[in-house]
Amino acid sequence: MYVRRSLDRDSAATLVHAFVTSRIDYGNALLANAPKMRTEKLQRVLNAAARVITGTRKFDSGLSHILHSDLHWLDVPQRVIFKLCMTVYKCLHGLAPKYIADLCVPVADVVGRRQLRSNSRGLLNFPRYNMSNYGRRAFRFAGPYVWNSLPEHIRQSASIAVFKRSLKTFLFQQISHLAH
After folding, report:
1. How far, CA to CA in Å, does 86 sit from each of 144, 159, 163, 170, 176?
2. How many CA atoms lie within 13 A of 84 on its CB side?
3. What is the predicted pLDDT for the residue at 131?
4. Helical H segments across the chain, by residue range
5. Cα–Cα nearest to 139, from 179, 79, 95, 81
6. pLDDT value at position 97?
7. Residue-level pLDDT at 113
8. What is the pLDDT of residue 168?
9. Burial environment of residue 65 by CB neighbours within 10 A (0 to 12, 13 to 18, 19 or more)
10. For a surface tag, which of 35, 109, 125, 132 has the fewest beta carbons within 10 Å of its beta carbon?
11. How far is Cα 9 from Cα 62, in angstroms, rounded to an integer?
């Protein structure tokens, strides 16, 4: 006789984080500016993981509300932006390896651009890209590009904890604006 046993919510959340969300987040910065068809597959995996934790069925309504409000998870495209911005923040504050930090060049350090108003706003220089498919996906372009798109008060956060919280709030606001 088979007895179906279900996990409690905390155990399910722990397992999902260990086996699913950590894998989605690992290397997801490579998905910067990727076509939607690439991120949709991961979004479906994330949605299934949320259903495992919450015990909802595949066609139950309100999954995005569960993802955002109950679990406090960002959608895959916003997770990619979060990861890029965190990496740039670490580069600018000496918390990243030099080979990555060297790709984040403030506008103030670029000869010929020092006189620009953007010099004092904490913006980064990003190079032009040659290849239409992969050039804009490279960190040297995508990292500074998303960094410059952040509001100035987020870019100038005093600590990494404040930066994370402000960035996640900003990205959730973007999701809610897209939904309406």
Report:
1. 11, 12, 8, 13, 21
2. 29
3. 63
4. 9-16, 22-25, 36-54, 63-65, 76-92, 98-101, 139-149, 152-155, 160-179
5. 81
6. 95
7. 58
8. 96
9. exposed
10. 132
11. 18
| Contact criterion met (CB below 8 Å) for 93 and 157 | no
Q: For position 9, what pLDDT does the model report? A: 82
Work out the burial of residue 45: count CB atoms within 10 Å of its CB; fewer than 13 is exposed, 13-18 middle, 19 or more buried: middle
Residue type, 172: F
Residue 173 carries which side chain, given as an amino acid letter?
Answer: Q
Whether 51 and 57 have beta carbons less than 8 Å apart is answered as yes
The residue assigned the tokens 């006189």 is 115
| DSSP bridge partners of 106 | 124
Is 3 buried (19+), middle (13-18) or exposed (0-12) by CB count in 10 A? Answer: exposed
Q: What is the DSSP letter of 59?
A: T
Rounded to whole angstroms, the Cα distance separating 94 from 17 reads 28
Both ends of the chain: CA-CA distance in Å?
49
Counting as low any pLDDT under 70, the low residues of the chain are 1-6, 111-120, 129-135, 178-180
CB 99 within 8 A of CB 160: no
Q: How many residues does the chain have?
A: 180
Residue 9's closest CA among 49, 52, 53?
53
